[in-house]
Amino acid sequence: MPPGAEREVGGDDSSRVTRVWKLVSAQAASRRGRASVADVCAAAATSVDVSGAWVTAGDGINPGQAMCATDVVGESLAEVQITLGEGPCHDAAVSGAPVLAADLADGSGNEWAVFAEAAVRAGAAAVFAFPLRIGAIRVGVLGLYRDKEGPLDTLHLGNALILADIATMLLLDAEARQADDPLFGAPLASQSPGLAAHNAEIAQATGMLTEQLGVGIAEAFARLRAYAYAQDRRLSDIAHDIVTRRLRLEPDLPG
Amino acid sequence: MDQELLSDTFVDLADTMVADFDVIDFLHLLSDRSVQLLGASAAGVMLADPRGQLRLVAASSEAVRLLEVFQIEGEEGPCLETIRTGQPVIEPDLRHAQERWPRFTPAALQAGFTAVHALPMRLREQVLGGLNLFHDRPGPFDSADVRIGQALADTATIGLLHERSLRRAEVVGEQLQAALNSRVVIEQAKGKLAERRGLDMDTAFTALRRYARDNNLRLSDFAQTFIDSDPADFPGLTEPAHHRHRQ
Questions:
Q1: What's the whole-model pTM score?
Q2: How far apart are CA B237 and CA A238, in angstroms?
């Protein structure tokens, strides 16, 4: 576990988030790599009662891009939805809410006749799609499939949602690294995915920073966490200082 | 009980649920009206997230939001209890509830609340969340108020699941997450507007909500649009009121 993961987690889901994060880190450790969305997919296959998983990156407006998949079935489920422009992942990306199709052959596939037929042919009986987002910041979709029909129970649904939070942070991290801005090098995924996605003050502070810094919402969030990282303080504490107007960030931070 | 306000409330809630329905806007209307109707000082609506934590989705004021967050983080309090048990939790005098909730009680008293009333939001066997009512005077509560409160909590449940057939059990999970995601978008938009205009968060929220209503937009959709746009595109919202036409 990266430093910071424990200290940032608070509330009664802390042990649960920590447990799921450990599964992802273990996947990364086993291939001696930095944690990525591929590790989230691998962890999903062991913690959510599904056969496989994939991640598509995208903003919900333009067609997505397949990032990784645990197997060929996942790969084809990702591709077919991008090609057709329909399916549960497509809908989750557009609406921003999960789409849970527990039985593609019977009923829950009706909305996407072409996709459902292709999915069943590929070997999927159920598909569950989770948007990767923090409010208005949208980065992609986590897709899960099972070769047998049936809904996710509450425990597995919860794990899937936590994995989606982690995948969101990892995609944002990867974008920051690609941007090659040292300010954005702070590993976000280590700063409690659940907390960052659900803390009202962090959301409010992110909105405030769009104005203070004159940037978009995704960059405002990147700046917020980069600042917290540089100061070695909790994201929630920095957010609290911004919301209570004790702290302002300047547009021209030295990079 | 103000009978006229009561009937107006159900008419307004029904109206909200017909056209351009927005679940967060609806839950806020519900918490505001609960306060007015039931003589409470403040109200909040919490939902049970399958991630294993409660999430606050609506509050009649920022003060309640802080208290509710305290309840979530302290892992104790009336709302947690009502969600765990599916039963109403009524504490008419918090001054005698120190042992019941050793962390929540002092925080509530410090915020000026002396009685609390938590009502479950149930769908069949499942508890989706709870409606909390805070009072600045000790109880006991009128039994008619308790019944109306529960009716409002049940209406909140129906609103949450609005427009979606419950044929599929999964729809409940989808709708809960949609509401939680909308909440975050609205918080981000509040921050942007608050910074732009130098407002506090409550005032920013009221302004966003009024603008969405006046322009027939769903609050969550508008919040997303506002975040993605130049604030100058919304002069009615982002310029001080005295620049605008007086209504």
A1: 0.88
A2: 27
Q: Hey, of B181, B205, B219, B220, which one would you mutate to test binding to chain A, going by the most A CBs within 10 A of its CB?
A: B181
Alpha carbon of A163: minimum distance to chain B alpha carbons (Å): 10
- Per-residue pLDDT reduced to its tens digit, A116-153: 999 999 999 999 999 999 999 999 999 999 999 999 99
**A95 in contact with B at a CB cutoff of 8 Å?**
yes
From chain A, the residues in CB contact with B104 under 8 A are: none
- Whether residue B231 contacts residue A211, with contact meaning beta carbons closer than 8 Å, is answered with yes
* Cα separation values, B102 from B35, B96, B97, B99, B127, Å: 26, 11, 8, 5, 25
d(C-alpha A222, C-alpha A228), whole Å: 10
Burial A140-166 (b: 16+ CB within 10 A, else e): bbbbbbbeebebbeeebbbbbbbbbbb
